[in-house]
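Hey, I'm writing a tutorial for new members on how sequence and structure tokens pair up, and I'd like a real worked example in the thread rather than a made-up one. If someone can provide the structure for the chain below, I'll link this post from the tutorial.
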Amino acid sequence: MTDTYILQLKAAAAHLAAHDPVLGTVIARSALPTMRPHHEYYRSLVQSIINQQLSTKAADSIERRFLELFGGSFPAPEAILAKSVDELRGAGLGRAKATYIRDLAAHVIDGKVRFDHLDGLSNEAISRELTDVKGIGAWTVHMFLMFCMGRLDVLPVGDLGIRGGIKKLYGLAETPSPQQVAEIAAQRHWHPYESVASWYIWQSLDNTPAV
């Protein structure tokens, strides 16, 4: 994490604490967010597909077996497509996830997904490109934008942890809908640091996504 990014996180925390006293109490007792932007975009998306709906322990075990299929190294898209769905399933992947990983590899090879230009795209444009891949939905894109690309202005409105955390922090009678999450973020002036606000909400529940 660069010094510049650390300064951005500090500015984000100060902005949020100044505009949202409720969130400010969480910020005051927490460290800076642990988001670490990097450029292992392809690997991160493959790992995200593997990790879907699995415990950390189970995901680690399957990823280890997945790598063993390729001699212990992370495979290029061409190497993945050289394996059949059944061969990938031998590593513990379900049929759907094996299909999704192959679909991502195919998108990379045919240029439908290009990691070399993502940094210059808006969040919406990145979402359109990535969700064309089977198995990559809005939540996966949101986590990719936040924890891989380090984008600070992402609000994962559909995340159950965010919705539950907001209900608890703000004393709501019901779990807020995605639309209500967006409204609360606007009312409390989280923009342009919605990612950081989200991280602190997860932190208040002690269940920050391990991405």
